[in-house]
Amino acid sequence: MKNIVDFYSGISTDTEGRTIHDIFKFNYEQLETIHDYIQWLFPLKEKSNFNDNAPLLTSGDIQVFRSDDVIKANVNKALRMMLDFYGFNMATNDANIKIAKNENYEERAKNWITPFNHNYLRITRILKFLTLAGMKNYAAAFFGALENVYTGNKKTIGRTTFAYWKNACR
Fold first, then answer.
1. What is the pTM of this model?
2. How many structural domains does the chain have?
3. Domain ranges, residue 109
């Protein structure tokens, strides 16, 4: 098993030989169609049902994610990349975080606001990871933006998905 801290520090690769900086260069099509990177960008404590090579986040890893400045910067970059992929942007000042639709939202939303879309699972993973990594304020801001999207798309997104997103922030 490869070490998630080394991957996030930029000194090792995922199981496919990609560095975190390689993944940061993915375009929208790659972000949509490649399915094994999301577990590396947003690792969890529990085993992935979709990627047997996904790293598992340990308590020690969580402490490093909460304290290491290089890793925190890379988490921020990964989050911004995925937010842009979904059609959001993030503004921060001091402890205030604002996530809102960007100018590409309508176009980007066509790719993920569809019934039973796999990106709903990715979003749940992102929210859970942010909470574990000590970034609950980021998870809450993302959830707030998602709540606004859900309000206008309840039938497409569904109550169950929305409940998973809400629970992921706890």
1. 0.95
2. 1
3. 4-168
| Residue 16: count of CB within 10 angstroms of its CB | 12
Q: Quick: pLDDT tens for 3-62.
A: 899 999 999 999 999 999 999 999 999 999 999 999 999 999 998 888 878 889 999 999
132 DSSP assignment: H
Q: Do 155 and 87 form a contact (C-beta atoms < 8 A)?
A: no
* Calpha distance 95→75 (Å, rounded): 16
Burial class (CB in 10 A: 0-12, 13-18, 19+), 159: exposed
Give the residue among 42, 41, 59, 65 at the shortest CA–CA distance from 134: 65
Q: Could you read off the pLDDT of 129-147 as tens digits, one per residue? A: 999 999 999 999 999 999 9
Q: Are 19 and 10 in contact (CB under 8 A)?
A: yes
